[in-house]
Amino acid sequence: MFSKLTVALTLAAAFLMPSAAFAADEAAASPAVPGVDEIVNMTNQASYYQGSDGRAKVHMTITDEQGRAREREFVILRWDAPEAGSDVAKKDQTFTGGQKFYVYFERPADVNKMAFLVWKHLDKSDDRWLYLPALDLVKRIAASDKRTSFVGSSFFYEDVSGRHIDEDTHELVKVTGDYYVLKNTPKDPDSVEFAYYEMYVHKKTFVVVETDYYDKQGQKYRTYKAEKVETIDGYPTVTKSSMTDTKNGSKTEMDYSEVKYNLDIPEDVFTERYLRQLPYEFLR
Amino acid sequence: MRKISVIATAALMAMAMCIGAAWAADEGPSLPTGLGDSGGPALPGGLEEESGPPLPIGMEGEATPTKSEAAGSGKRKLSEVLGLSGFWDIRAGIRTQRDRHEQQASLAETRLQLESQKRIGPVTSKVVTDFLYDGLADSRKIDLETGQGWMDLREANISWSPFSFADVKVGRQILTWGTGDLVFINDLFPKDYVSFFAGRDEAYLKAPSDAIKTSIFTDAVNVDIIYTPVFDSDRYITGRRMSYYNAMLGEAAGRNAIMQADVPNEWFNDSEWAARVYRNVSGYELAAYGYWGYWKSPGGMDAATGKATFPRLSVYGASARGQFARGIGNVEAGYYDSREDRAGGDPNVSNSEFRFLLGYEQDLKQISRDLTIGMQYYLEWMQDYDAYRSALPAGMPEADEYRHVVTLRLTKLLMNQNLRLSVFTFYSPSDGDVYMRPNLSYKMNDHWTFVAGGNVFFGESEETFFGQFADNTNVYCGLRYGF
Q1: Looking at the partner chain, which of B2, B68, B280 has a beta carbon nearest the beta carbon of A257?
Q2: Which residue in A203, A229, B119, B324 has the most C-beta neighbors within 10 A?
Q3: Residues 299-358 of B with CB under 8 A from A
Q4: From B59, which residue of chain A is nearest by alpha-carbon distance?
Q5: Residue B174 lies inside a defined structural domain of this protein
Q6: Cα A54 to chain centroid, rounded
Q7: A243 φ, ψ to 5°?
Q8: CB neighbour class for A166 (10 Å; exposed up to 12, middle 13-18, buried from 19)
Q9: Do B57 and A280 touch (CB under 8 A)?
Q10: Backbone φ and ψ of A180, nearest 5°
Q11: Nearest-angstrom CA–CA distance, B172 and B169
Q12: Interchain contact, B57 vs A236, CB within 8 Å
């Protein structure tokens, strides 16, 4: 009799720890669930590397804790470096290497016509330049802190250009009907303000639908949401997203429009020449 | 016992189911628009009708890709249609002490800047004009060279790319190169020190050039060549608005002794050439520079007339800038060849100089977010110093062979980067003088910005570069509406 009770309790206990049991079970047994590394790679690809290059117009609305709104408008161009050592100009589907970004500001008035250039490196700090047209000045920006606000918004630089996947350890903590849920813990906790973050990755597209950041006390304080996704040139693309920061009470919404991929933007566009002389062809 | 075990098992199963159900409810966020399968969350009102039904995810065909045109477009402002932008700015400043040669007010002006940038075929035209009322100006007559009068033309140029590897810009333009932060060695384009010291926006430190700029881009190096048909001097301190040390009088002077100058002004004869050859080697910017023209601020004196002169000058230099340690490092050097006094024995012409700059900038994230520190060491080394000393007329103040300057910039952004506090300090241990530029800038909203700041000079002697401006120490504030 007691043995039966023990079996029953054991079974029940297994049910009482559903997440661990389920995740382990699903990840191991079901062929449909890819490994953590693959999910992380696919997610990184879907978030920051769609197409061989890209362009979008971004309208940003920053709302502070008192409800005051500020707007930003800019065009962002993206170029992906070819694989190191390869002479093939085009990257393959799994590429997640160095990138270059060109950001041209149109609004508000005090940043109108400023251009911002980033060379994103995986093995060292990014190179950043800011062009101030009123002074014809190409200014070099110290960029060791990637977790500082991007143009005063709730988004960090790292949210816009991507956090290097090797900076965190990744666990698949849950698989739901729609999502892979990843828990990402920083390898160097002192370099960041969060203790860990959880990502809800859409299973079919690997689009990150929500990211929750937790502080050292385990409190959720910052949430990214993909509010709208459209398929553009065949790529599922987040065209509306938001970041809410409960610590400073701010919220920022980003609306993407005129999104285009595979424009064959030359690498030259991401140089000092085009900070001074606008690359109109790709900005309009 | 059997009954108990059945009941216990049932109870535990029920508990497990409850937990399972609760867990199922915690399946994560609802899918955003566009990712939802059938039975997903309802779309926000209005979205559906405009953008059409979202494509099912994973659809292979590209038959009807949806394009988002929602944000921004369709509600263009008049200013955008005309390609007009700009600002209206009002500022006032006052000396914090009396200057017996100058007015108490250091700044009292309002200006409207209009900017129009248009693209006509392959050509881009740009015009930036300031219309201003300067309460301290002696005259409203327009002088486009000195920027005096009710209009200051900042830019009026056209640019195009005659070849895929070349850009040309012709007309009035602002020109800048080099690596220093408010310290210039190889940048010999005109500066406006009157604006800089009086508390106008920092952009006004750069005065316009009337020039032709040709840029050539190759895989090996890039080349800029700038031809200025007639010399553009700095907008230097004359005594009209700021007092200075007058060596002839042997004391501070201002409106009692406004500096008269002989500025080279013959078209095509008194021209300037500037060139830069540069290359970016994996993030490290290397450049070599050359300049053939004149001292940009008075570099001599005509002994017969007592007028300030701009003797011939050539400058050769180089710079490098890139990531260093945890920040950005830069190094720049230049040789100033004072062509009218190569031996250094002419007391009426500045001697040749070697100039050197070392800089470093880093964000201090360990201390605070959005806090940046910048440090520079700058050296002016007078050549032929012995010849200078022996030729120096009796009673004239003697300059040092080496002028050392260190600068420190601290910048902190607060309130979602809407409040910017910064202090830039020049300190010369050899001259024993200091120039500080505290500045506060607060963006009240997307249009209005409030600024306040100061220009603080002090020194052991009234003859040194910053020390001579001690009586011009001022504070200012201003308001700007941008559109």
Answers
A1: B68
A2: A229
A3: 321-323, 326-328, 330
A4: A234
A5: yes
A6: 15
A7: -130, 125
A8: exposed
A9: no
A10: -95, 130
A11: 9
A12: yes
Cβ–Cβ gap A257/B72 under 8 Å: yes
Instruction: Pick the residue of A15, A106, A126, A150 with the most B CBs within 10 A to test the interface with B by mutation.
Output: A15
Residue B121, in any domain of the structure: yes
The structure tokens listed for A125 are: 């700090």
Alpha-helical segments (H) within B308-381: none
Q: What is the DSSP string of chain A?
A: -HHHHHHHHHHHHHHHSHHHHHHHHHHHH-TTS--HHHHHHHHHHHHH--SSEEEEEEEEEEE-TT--EEEEEEEEEEEEPPPTT---SS--TT----EEEEEEEEESGGGTT-EEEEEE-SSSPPEEEEEETTTTEEEEE--S--SSBSTTSSSBHHHHH---GGGEEEEEEEE-SSEEEEEEEESSGGGSS-SEEEEEEETTT--EEEEEEE-TTS-EEEEEEEEEEEEETTEEEEEEEEEEETTTTEEEEEEEEEEEE-----GGGGSHHHHHS--HHHH-
At B27 the pLDDT is: 66
Question: In angstroms, rounded to a whole number, what is the distance separating the alpha carbons of residues B64 and B246?
Answer: 76
* Most distant CA atoms of chain A, gap in Å: 87
Does A204 sit within 8 Å of B57, measured CB to CB? yes
Q: Which domain holds residue B446?
A: 79-482
| CB contacts, 8 Å: B174 with chain A | 134-136
**Which comes out higher in pLDDT, residue B413 or A32?**
B413
The pLDDT tens digits of the residues spanning B117-145 come to 999 999 999 999 999 999 998 888 888 88
pLDDT given for residue B81 in this prediction:
66
Residues of A in contact with B372 (CB under 8 A): 142
B228 vs B154: CA distance, rounded Å:
16
The distance between the two most distant Cα atoms of chain B, rounded to a whole number of Å, is 124
Does residue B1 lie in a domain region?
Answer: no
Q: Does pLDDT of A90 surpass 70?
A: no
pLDDT band at A145 (very low <50, low <70, confident <90, very high): confident
Structure pTM? 0.86
Which CATH number does the domain housing residue B344 bear? 2.40.160.10
**All domains of chain A in start order, with CATH:** 19-283 (2.50.20.10)
Residue B240: is it exposed, middle or buried by C-beta count within 10 angstroms (0-12/13-18/19+)?
middle
Q: Residue A33: which pLDDT band, with cuts at 50, 70 and 90? A: confident
Whether B274 has its CB under 8 Å from any CB of chain A: the answer is no
Quick: pLDDT tens for A150-174: 999 999 999 988 898 999 999 999 9
Residues A254 and A60: their CA atoms lie apart, in Å, by: 5
Average pLDDT over residues B97-108: 95
Q: If you average pLDDT over every residue of chain A, what do you get? A: 86
Distance CA B73, CA B62 (A): 25
> Is pLDDT above 90 for B64?
no
Range scoring the smallest mean pLDDT among A175-179, B58-62, B302-306: B58-62
Count of domains for chain B: 1
To 10 degrees, what angle do helices B2-25 and A2-16 make?
A: 10
CB-closest option in A145, A230, A277 to B54 = A230
ipTM of the complex: 0.86
pLDDT at residue B36, as a whole number: 64
User: Residue A199's closest chain B neighbor by CA?
Assistant: B28
